[in-house]
Each structure stands twice: as C-alpha cells, then as structure tokens.
Hints:
Blueprint: E1 10-13, E2 19-24, E3 31-37, E4 43-52, E5 65-74, E6 78-87, E7 98-101, E8 105-113, E9 119-121, E10 127-128, E11 143-147, E12 152-159, E13 168-176, E14 182-187, E15 196-198, H1 203-206, E16 210-213, E17 217-223, E18 230-236, E19 242-248, E20 255-262, E21 265-271, E22 276-283, E23 289-296, E24 303-309, E25 312-319, E26 322-329, E27 337-342, E28 351-354, E29 359-365, E30 369-375
Parallel strand pairs: 7-10
Antiparallel strand pairs: 1-2, 2-3, 3-4, 5-6, 6-8, 7-8, 8-9, 11-12, 12-13, 13-14, 13-15, 16-17, 17-18, 18-19, 20-21, 21-22, 22-23, 24-25, 25-26, 26-27, 28-29, 29-30
Amino acid sequence: TYPPASGAPAIVRLADGTLDVAVARAVGAGRLDGFHLTSQLGIIAGPTVLAAGGGAPPCGSLPASSIEFPVVATDGTKLAVGAFETDAPAASCNCNGGLTGNYTETTLGLAVQGDLSAITPASPSAINRGCVTSPYYRTANPAVAYAPAISQFGFVWSDDHLTPNSSTGNMFIATMTPAGVLSAVRYLMPVPADSKTYIGQPNAIASHPQLAMGTSTALVAWRHWTTGYVRYVIMDNALTTVLKGPFDVSPAQPYAASAAFLGTSFALLTHSGGTTVTVRRIDATTGVEISSTPIVETAIVYAARISAVHGGWAVGTARGDRIGFAWAREDLVGGFLAIESGQNGIASGAAIAAIDAKHAAVVWVDGSLRAAIATCGP
C-alpha cells in the first residue's frame, strides 16, 4: 500500500517524454518504489524498489523502518531521488545512500537511471555520523533540483549534529553527479545560525526545505528557528554562493510547502497549517517578492505542491478526502482557477508534471497510487 501519511508521490518528465514517479510504501516496512510511465500513464516499468529500509546488509538486523516524502529531479535522462528514512537502532544503518547517517534517521540520496534500470546510492555520505547511538543525530527530508550550469544535482537538507538530541538543526547543501558522487558539502549560509531550522519528528515533516533552480539563479527556502516562519535566499546557479537574502516572507507563514521556477520568477508555496496556502511570486534576480495570491480551501490543507505548467503555476492540494487542483498565470493576475475531486478516503497531496504545452500528469496516493491527465486551458 501507499499511505497518504508517507507523503505525496513525486513526478518528473524525461527528455524523451516519458515520466518517472517515486512513491513511498507502507510505514513499518519502509520502501521507496519507482514507476516508469509513458506520456499517457501506461506502465513501462515498475514498481521498482529504489530503496528499502532494513532490507540488505549491513542493515539486515533492522526490525522496522519507514521511508517517506519522496522528492525527484532529472537532467533529462537520469534522476536524483531523495526521501526521509527512519530505522530502528542497529550497528550500522546508513545503507541506502544516506546523505546523513545516524541512530534512527537518514536523509536518503539516490542516483537512478531514467528507465529505472540502475540505482546508485549517493557516495560518500555527506555527513557520515557512523550511526552512533550517542549522541542521537536527527535529520530532515531533503529537497533536490538539477543545476544545468554544473551538470549536477543539488541537495539541501538539515541535521542537528551541532546540537545533538535537539529539535533544531542547520541547513546544508551539496551537489551530486548523475553517477551519484556527492561533493561540495557545506553550510547553506556563511553564518550557520542564519539557517537554523526545526528538525526531527514531527517538526521535520512540517519544515521540509525547498529548492528550485532557475536559469541563472536558485531559490532555497526553509522554516527558520528564531522566527518560526519561512525564510529564503537566492543563490547562484552553481549553488556555491548566496546572492540575495535571507528574506523573511510577509505576511509570515510557518511552512514552506513547495517551490518552482518559470520565466523570470520563482513561485514559493507557503501555508500556515490552516485552510489557506499562499503562492508568492519572487523575482529570480533580486529575490524581492513581486506579488502573492491565496488559495483558500474549506478545510485544513495538509499537503500542497507547485509546478510550472502551461506557462503558469499548477498547484495540487489535499484536504481530508478531497484532492484540489489549481492553475494561475505566471504573473498571478486573475488568481487561481481551482477544481476539486472527491476520493474514497484520505488522500495525499497531488504532484504535477507537464506532459506537453496542453497537458499535465497528476499523481497522488490514497492507499494506492493514482494518476490522471489534466488538460490545461485556455
């Protein structure tokens, strides 16, 4: 099964028009599955096991695990896949390409062939803690994007090795080649305290960092510890230098849910854990928020994703047993046109990827992996 509590699936379109989906399997028997699909959502390959907690040496002694909140990026032919893994204690638990290995939590990083024929754990692990039992290091889910300027993938995540056994961490950034080789691991900010963030369950779930890659710059967003609200920076397209920021969003909201790039701007999706999510259009050069618009639901929104689709922004949301889809122009003029679809039970948020200029693939889970094709208008 694919429970909604394990997070929305992630989807990308490859250069040949096919699609790849990563989806988290049942908590308690942690597994990350991949599907390779045609542009019409037919299955070419899958489910293919991308990662399985406690499934192979040296982690075979682990009695239980969970893998949650998958993220995916592509260079057109290969994938970088990330997720959050929790394992029971063992002598060594960093077996699935962890960016951070520790007592029970691992930030996964994988390099995957686009047709799912080859899977390579990230190596070496960015901050290898040796899975020690004391102190107890904690991590959070990563974000990932492809950086064409350096022909590598960028990962951002947080961990608490500066203050073990705590609920706070610092943001880190690294690059990974399509072959899975990690390098350039460093603090996100020159002053680490500027990127101090929440970490560990349940704060890490609500505080995932976000990364979006533009033409010449990148956006990184996270929930800042001191303010409790979303903060972001603009980086160069090689992910080496903070060019602008940090900026704190206004009006303040605590959670950075998703980010995307289109044309000359980034879209940062933030929410407060209530019925409203806000899409903020941010200038890709200056980092200044140009405009924003809310998407108001009639019940609490607990998952939301944003993608660049059909010359604008497509948003997928989840509230109870309703899946929501919304679209707006890049400049947000006119706001979002939204529709909803009822499900048989609780559903995850929806992830969206453009198929062509007129159509988009939409995927979500409600115990099973679901997919549909949306026709964009006008």
